[in-house]
Specification:
Blueprint: H1 5-14, H2 20-30, H3 38-62, H4 66-98
Helix pairs in contact: 3-4
Amino acid sequence: MSEHPESDDRRTEERGHLTNRQAYNVVSDLAMGANIRFKDNVFQAIAIAVCLLLGAIIGALVTEEHLPGALVGGFLGLLVGLLGSGFVLMVFRAVMHLRGRHD
């Protein structure tokens, strides 16, 4: 086993074959499966948290009853953050696959 798995990945990719991790990423991006990319998950968590917070603040400001407005706004922000960040990741990963980058 090599000390540098990244160099093994590069050599395998240069020969035209995908590594096991790259093959899993292709299947999970194009068909179904859990996304195990740390950066993608951090991006999505931050996007959801920001949208939830913005939704709660906006919901509290636009209603007379602040707590119910914040709860409804926070829930709507959560949904917008989840669906929006998922759509952005979907488009980004599709473009990366079209370019042949299957990290």
